[in-house]
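Subgroup meeting minutes
Present: P.N., E.W., G.H.
Scribe: E.W.

1. P.N. recapped why we're keeping a running log of single-chain structure predictions: easier to compare across weeks, and new members can see raw inputs and outputs side by side.
2. G.H. added today's entry (82 aa).
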Amino acid sequence: MTAGQEDYLSRRMSSLGYRINEPVEIEILGEKPTLITAILNYMRNELDYDLDDIAKIFFLSSKEVEQLYNLKPTIPTFRIVQ
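Output recorded in log:
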């Protein structure tokens, strides 16, 4: 691409508003992650990870993990150690 073509394309994209908003927004409806949710539930139920531990692994906040993977905070359980 020549400098002139780049300049033209840049001006054209600006005039169409593409520098502010992408021309097409894609939203995939109806798809929800199932395998990752199952893995995360296994981590929580069998390996005793809590929501904060999982969030740290993914470098996300607990709230983001809840929203992305449809996980809810668990009520702490107490175990009797003998």
